[in-house]
Amino acid sequence: MYKENYEKWLEFVSPEDKEIMLNMSEEEKRDSFTDTLSFGTAGIRGIMGIGTSKLNIYNIGMIMAGYASYLLKKNDRPAVVIGYDTRNNSYKFAIECALVLNAYGIKTYLFKDVASTPLVSFATKKMNLDGGIVITSSHNEYIYNGVKIYNLFGGQLMPSEADLLLEEISKLDGYKSVKKAPQNNELFEYVNDLVIYEFNDENEKVFINKDLVKEYGKDVRVTYSSLHGVGIYTAPNIFEKYNIKYNLVSEQCVIDPMFTYAPKPNPEILDNWNLPIEYAKKNNSDIIIETDPDSDRVGLMVKNNNDYEYIDGNTLGVLFLYYIVNNSNYFKKYVVKSIVTTDLVDKICQEHHIRLKEVLTGCKNIAYEKINDPDNYLFGYEESLGYMFNIDVNDKNSFSSINMILEILCYCKKNNITLVDYINEIYTKYGYYACKTLDIKTNTKDDVDRIMSSLRDNKLFDYDKKTDYLKEKENNTNALKFIINDNEYFMVRPSGTEPKIKIYYIVNDISYLDAQNRLNSLVNRMDQIFDKLS
Could you tell me whether strands 221-225 and 245-248 are parallel, antiparallel, or unpaired per DSSP bridges? Predict the structure, then answer.
């Protein structure tokens, strides 16, 4: 199959790319032309390069030609907004998207400069468009890029929508059938900068008590890193507006598509915090905030005595929820979490008689619930640092998250407590939780399938209960949940974008130390099992 694909591509690639192909080894041909790109939990992502399995202008062109057909079946004169991040080729791919769509009669609005993912989500709905596109690979390494597509509500395409799009792409006769317009055509426009100011205003609606931030912002000290991404254009404006004393991690706040000072630009990776901690100590910062390159995720460290402590994604989400339910009206509201998110959320919702909806991983699933019942939505999140508040942005959003972090910190300042004290208040009330997410990296998808089958079909360790989500009517997916006992459980699922399995460990105990010891013991026991499987 790969040989046939290889020969087809030789017919239409540019002379420069043809030269690259002719110099490929047989192994490189097999790697590049065996598979095709597909939708994962957050759009289409892949390593950049030549071939059916790589992200390049040819695959971008075919995706857009299919997307054009998909849109034209819904509207005679559709229009979309296009944004792009700081990665290599992002602007080039964004232009390709626009000009292919223009060739099929679709109006496009391109951001004049790099744009965050939540900004594009907001702009799609605010501008009353039929869809939106972001060229980004979020927190992946520099060799990756991707295409995220929004529906008219600013939510990512759901599986049923993505299937219809893939059906249109499959009808194409390769890239040679793709049309492309010149850039100086009447359907190509740039986005009016007004939408950026409207986005910033929308993020302020997350505040429950803005006066707290106005009054105590001057007492807050923050260190910020954009991990070489677009957040540097927005986050400092928030700090300055409320007189917050902040410093920037200068090395990581430079726009750099190679991510030199954050090679794996994910706030969940602790190595990315080493430089920020140095800057925080110089500034005597209360907190450190990191956003990933496209600024949909946010990470947090808090000062604890003379050092800084990482707040994992589950705990940060619980912190948001606890503050919201104790400081706002939640009557008849509902909360949404993913199936891999801590069950501490369940305890808080049960106590306050708040409806809790559980969805599959991916913030698009949280957005789907929010879009269908926006008036009663309170808050939603997944543990991978993705938080969605009750504002008109239907994707995870680091900037609304930053605003909420600042309000909570100002609340602590007013009450003469630390953020660590406030988090411990939650744990004292509900029990101490400890969480860890780990990966089993494999070479191929076949390896992933083999490991999942082994876990599904064999009892390789002791547990009280196993839930196989492939057998569930709701939230049907390739995932397994193992409840070891009343205080320990973990989940496993394949990654939606890479050949690896993600493991989510969650335990609770009567103290922080006991919870950490319990977590480490569980992880060590399971490491021995997973080592044998991989």
Answer: parallel
Comparing CA positions, the residue from 310, 317, 149, 289 lying closest to residue 231 is: 289
- DSSP letter string over 167-213? HHHHTS-SGGG-----SSSTTEEEPPTHHHHHHHHHHGGG-S-HHHH
What contacts 72, CB < 8 A, 6 or more positions away? 78, 104, 105, 106
- Are 206 and 183 in the same domain? no
Q: Does 440 share its domain with 486?
A: yes
The pTM is what? 0.96
Are residues 160 and 96 part of one domain? yes
Q: Within its chain, how far is the Cα of 442 from the centroid?
A: 22
Same domain, 73 and 119: yes
Tokens of 375: 């008036």
Do residues 412 and 464 share a domain? Answer: no
For 150-202, the pLDDT digits (tens) are: 999 999 999 999 999 999 999 998 898 999 999 999 999 999 999 999 999 99
Domain of residue 447 covers 432-533
Q: What is the pLDDT of residue 42?
A: 66
**Cα 509 to Cα 128: distance, rounded to the nearest angstrom:** 49
Q: Are residues 246 and 357 in the same domain?
A: yes
User: Which two structure tokens, joined as six digits, stand for 371?
Assistant: 């879009």
- Given a cut of 80, whether residue 39 has pLDDT beyond it is no
List the one residue out of 338, 381, 364, 455 whose CA is nearest residue 41: 364
20 occurs within a structural domain: no
Number of H helices, E strands in the chain: 18, 21
Tokens of 29: 């041909």
Domain check: are 121 and 254 in the same one?
Answer: no
Q: Which of 147, 126, 310, 98 is nearest to 203 (CA)?
A: 126
Task: Please say which residue of 192, 224, 254 terminates a domain.
Answer: 192
Instruction: Let me know if residue 60 belongs to a domain.
Output: yes
Q: Where are the beta strands (DSSP E) in 261-411?
A: 287-291, 298-304, 307-311, 334-338, 355-359, 377-382, 386-389
pLDDT tens column, 40-89: 766 899 999 999 999 999 999 999 999 999 999 999 999 999 999 999 99
> Within this chain, do residues 212 and 152 fall inside the same structural domain, yes or no?
no
Question: Where are any strands of DSSP class E within 287-443?
Answer: 287-291, 298-304, 307-311, 334-338, 355-359, 377-382, 386-389, 432-441
Domain count, the chain: 3
- Boundary of a domain, candidates 192, 218, 242: 192
